[in-house]
Specification:
It is built from 1 helix and 5 strands; from the N terminus they run βββββα. The chain is mostly beta strands and 89 residues long. The chain has one domain. It comes from Dreissena polymorpha (Zebra mussel).
Length: 89
């Protein structure tokens, strides 16, 4: 899932290709703002699209390594799911 975040305190905005749903309906694990150190929830979440074919990434047959930018590693120190003891990776 792909998420869009905005910090309620400093108004910083960022996007993430690593948004994971919680087991509670319509709730997702948050990410911590790098500036304010407060946990933020995504204000919008959508399916990740394949960069090759444009289809929903989890259902297409393309190479799955192309769906995220390998130059941007997952920041587990800012990830609510990783910090809860259930790492994303």
């Amino acid at each position: 899932m792909y998420g869009f975040f905005e910090c309620s305190k400093c108004k910083s905005r960022w996007e993430s290709a690593k948004v994971t749903p919680k087991h509670i309906r319509d709730q997702y694990y948050g990410q911590q703002c790098k500036s304010c150190n407060i946990m933020c929830q995504p204000y919008r979440v959508e399916e990740t699209k394949c960069s090759r074919c444009g289809m929903v990434a989890r259902t297409c047959g393309c190479d799955k390594t192309r769906h995220t930018d390998p130059r941007k590693p997952h920041r587990s120190d800012l990830c609510e799911k990783c910090r809860s003891g259930r790492p994303c990776q």
